[in-house]
Amino acid sequence: MTGGQAETSGPGAQRGFGLELPDYPWDTLIPYRRIAEAHPDGAVDLSVGTPVDPTPAVVRQALADAADGHGYPTTHGGEALRQAIADWYSRRRAVPGLDPGAVLPTVGSKELIAWLPVLLGLGPGDIVVRPEIAYPTYDIGARLAGAQVVATDEPWELEPQIRNRIRLIWINSPGNPTGAVQDIPVLQQFVAEARALGAVLASDECYAELGWGAWDEARGGTQVPSLLHPRVAGGSHEGLLAVYSLSKQSNMAGYRAAFSAGDPRLIANLLNTRKHAGMMVPGPVQRAMSAALGDDAHVQEQKDLYRGRRERLRGALEAFGLRIEHSEAGLYLWGTAEEDAWRTIGRLAELGLIAGPGSFYGSAGDQFVRIALTCSDAGIDAAVHRLRGE
């Protein structure tokens, strides 16, 4: 300290000027975006998983019909929405008999992921476990609560002094960015571990309707299992929380439409806190969610589009020299050229293609890139031609 002034580590570092969180990682892609945008035929953005196809008409009509939203919505969600969620779990996730009282709409799934440690009352000394390669918001949520993060896919292998401090375990199946799917025996192992520790086990399942290959029901595959599946949960949802979003399956990213379900006591506790904090999904959006959850046809149509894009793009990426790993479900292809991810990102940018470096998701992804399927058919076809040198 000099002159009576406290030292700072940069803008906003002084007390009262905001949290000291890491810079938003996607900003580091800007130089590569500029290279891609200089391509004679323009850039094709395969980096971010934001839907590009229209929101289904049934959803837009429901939103329009509910536009006279003059009253406050309920934080718990209307009865019609909660019943629609319970019915959807029974029909699409093999979770029968879900109590509509044990579901809770959220303002997108990212909001809940970021704030769950705070809402659970976690703080210094507590540990949040997240997958080794994972969506960065799991880490941010722990930091917002002042808790510690441990990255592992096998929490049961941790030292006892660490395991005894675990209060929240995140799993993500199908995973972002890898597209890996956890089968029922692995999910059962997570449930047993969390219950032995007295920790909450939260499962981010927002890509569950987008299984491929062995997980593609339309092609004779098996349904991606939910944490709340009777065989996984063992007849009780105690300590379990499943998180889902309509952004991917229904092109509703702009609606911020998501929900959680599971342990009734846990949901009741979250509900009470969210009432105090004003965390509520707008009434018209709730009506649109009900419509989306009640219509399976648009989900299958969208999945068919993604399947076609995925099949065309995968072959071209392999021809370019990438080895595709996992990618069993979801909206991404996870590939490596056995080199630093940023070198691969640069080579793709020279072709006018923008991808995401695996290093954004943990050091285990340093030689991987994530390629999104959320691009128009014209964009996918352009990427295929460039990757094949045509």
Please give the structural blueprint.
Elements: H1 30-37, E1 44-45, H2 57-65, H3 79-92, E2 103-107, H4 109-119, E3 127-130, H5 137-145, E4 148-151, H6 160-163, E5 166-172, H7 184-197, E6 200-204, H8 230-233, E7 240-245, E8 257-262, H9 264-277, H10 283-293, H11 297-320, E9 323-325, E10 332-336, H12 341-350, E11 353-354, E12 356-357, E13 368-372, H13 377-387
Parallel strand pairs: 1-11, 3-4, 3-5, 5-6, 6-7
Antiparallel strand pairs: 2-8, 7-8, 9-10, 10-13, 12-13
Description of the molecule:
The protein is α/β, with parallel strands linked by helices and 390 residues long. Helices cover 37% and strands 14% of the residues. The strands form three sheets. The protein has a seven-stranded mixed β-sheet with strand order 2-8-7-6-5-3-4, sandwiched between helices. Helix 1 runs parallel beside helix 12. The longest helix is centred in the C-terminal third of the chain and has 24 residues. It is globular, with a radius of gyration of 21 Å. The termini are far apart.
